[in-house]
Give the backbone structure.
Amino acid sequence: MKQTGVQGGGIRSFVVDSRSELGPQLAERVDHTRRLVARRWFLKECGVGLGAIGLADLLGLSAAAAPKATDPLTTRQPPFTPKAKSVIYLFMAGGPSHLELFDNKPELARWDGKLPPPDLVKNYRAAFINPNSKLLGPKFKFARHGKSGAELSELLPHLATQADDLCIVKSMVTDAFNHAPAQIFMNTGAQQFGRPSLGAWTLYGLGSESKDLPGFVVFSTGSKGPSGGNSNWGSGFLPTVYQGVQFRTGSDPVLYLSSPRGVDRGLQRDTLDGLGELNRLAWDQHGGLVGDLKKNCRNTDQACAALLRDLKSRGLLDSTLVIWGGEFGRTPMVQGGSDGRDHHPNCFTMWLAGGGVKPGVTIGESDAFGFHVTRDKVHVHDLHATILHLLGFDHEKLTYRFQGRDFRLTDVHGKLVKQILA
């Protein structure tokens, strides 16, 4: 038998010569000693781990029965009592003209066909037209309605009956002047893809009262949807559980997942290319302003008014915030001959109702041509801050840490618009 003096981990190491008569007996004793010492060492050094395993086993049933604190949709109370429990955002993608719907400008009518005053177009950048283009007077008549005396276009006869429930904001401004960036900005607070939408931030902050139904849903009309696509209701860098769930009809849960019967890929491609070309020729109200606005208002005016009426009759309007508006307004200058307007981020109109909003008021004012805001400017970030306030949040404190810093819906901007609050 040979013995070495090597030690490791408190266990002495032996090398046994099996040719010795004592070899088998000694080898058995050495093996027994090794197993004994190893077991004592394991119990001593790993006791905490074993205890944790045993505790987990003992608590298994009760732990499984307890609600998960990490459930991202667990209902949470906002920091202060909310005025609104639900939000319905009627997003009018495409940039509805404030000059034909809400912001009556008699002076613009008198300047129809003339060039704008130079100071109005100084340093102004339009999307497609030369800023020094001729002015275009309003195409429809306006009248005052309700006790509030709110001025609305003749295109909105149904909404006019609800004038005393509206908070009309005529002094909205945005940073973007093309559809997709402006739509994403209006819904996420940033012009680039990848930021959480307003609905996603709300669901992140409040959770959901239902485990069987989504807390943030989207109805998108039309074959294309908004130019900004799913980013308008996406979750961005928030967990995907917070993104909006788009409701669809038909068999496919995802649009264009499969072609209709009798339509192969080649025919589908030709069809989509043809539609794309038609859209480029028509795009929105750069031309055909009068006809398109009549059609759009026929499709939405009665429905929007009926929604307000229905909520009010059921006692739900006080706790439901309704928001109406697009991504920007339309230029006072003409485009497309004599029947179109370009994109206009410097001034546009939105309205809100219910959910803690002051009813029967008009906020803000623009110049005589509807070109620039002259009083009570409301930036998109300010609107977002106010919406979050009505839901019970301080917009500066609803944050999510991503890539080393705390992000929020209003980024580093935004202020509460107190004139909107009831």
About this structure: The longest helix spans residues 289-313. Residues 1-22, 45-69 have pLDDT under 50 and may be disordered.
